[in-house]
Design a protein that fits this description.
The protein has about 260 residues and is mainly beta. It has one domain: Porin (Beta Barrel). It is about 10% helix and about 60% strand.
């Protein structure tokens, strides 16, 4: 064997004796998925979390012939969720005509904010409402107040919370146009029946602190079913009952039942 051949054999033996990991360290590093075509690292900016959700709902029904009747109902709802609080906004409008005569024209706006304490079941809340009803003894009714709430159940499928607070109401344009001190006792329930169906119920009672026999109450219950997951369309069927122990010349109880098409966004 010539001296040249001996040198080549020695170099080859030395190369093979070096561990594979050590040789790989000399190779150029592979580019990470975040590297662009020029080899520079591109910073990936995550989209901010979605805190607002909304929904629109509408329903119409009527009849023609011996009885001419047409009813419409619209609703708009929004909810904002952050780690510290939850804000709920609700607007409902309903109008009805029968034989060319208007028999219903009312609107209700509600807002409620809940302040959350980390994992605690306790929360603070504040609320306000504005109500218009052409067939009541007043033009507008305002309410507002706040208090303390407690979440009895909070799971992925079921939630149950109660509220206790105090506030006021005022019926503008009515025979008792003044501020009335009120308590607020509330209950909120929601249960997910299936992946597409859920049931919700809310009850609020407002006793007059200066006259405990006088009170108002609002109760709502609804069943909702997702019918088109691609476009987020749902069908909602429910009832809304409003009671006032001092209605004046109007009836004490107003019961609405409805079927609506709901679009969530």
């Amino acid at each position: 064997m010539t001296p040249c051949s001996t040198s080549r054999v020695a170099v080859l033996a030395l190369f093979l004796s070096v561990p594979l990991s050590a040789r790989a360290a000399d190779d150029p590093p592979a580019k990470s998925p975040e590297a662009d075509a020029a080899g520079e690292i591109v910073e990936i900016v995550e989209a901010p979390p979605k805190i607002w959700e909304g929904r629109l709902e509408a329903g119409v029904n009527g009849s023609a012939g011996n009885t001419e009747q047409f009813n419409i109902r619209f609703g708009a709802h929004a909810i904002r969720k952050t780690p510290d609080d939850v804000l709920k906004l609700d607007l409902i409008y309903a109008k009805s005509n029968k034989n060319g005569v208007e028999i219903e024209n009312k609107a209700l706006f509600e807002a409620r904010n809940e302040w959350i304490f980390d994992e605690s079941p306790w929360f603070l809340f504040a609320y306000m409402t504005t109500e218009f009803d052409e067939f009541k003894d007043w033009d507008l009714r305002f309410t507002g107040g706040g208090g303390l709430g407690y979440k009895w159940i909070k799971t992925d499928r079921t939630s149950l919370a109660s509220r206790l607070g105090a506030g006021f109401s005022r019926e503008v344009g009515g025979f008792d146009d003044q501020f009335v001190p009120e308590m607020n006792l509330g209950l909120d329930f929601e249960h997910k029946l299936t992946d597409r169906q859920k049931f919700t119920a809310t009850i609020d009672v407002f006793p007059d602190i200066s006259a405990w026999s006088d009170y108002r109450a609002t109760a709502k219950a609804a069943w909702e079913c997702l019918i088109d997951p691609v476009h987020n369309l749902s069908l909602q069927i429910g009832i809304l009952d409003r009671y006032d122990s001092t209605p004046g010349d109007a009836k004490a109880n107003d019961l609405d039942y409805f079927g609506l098409l709901v679009w969530k966004f």
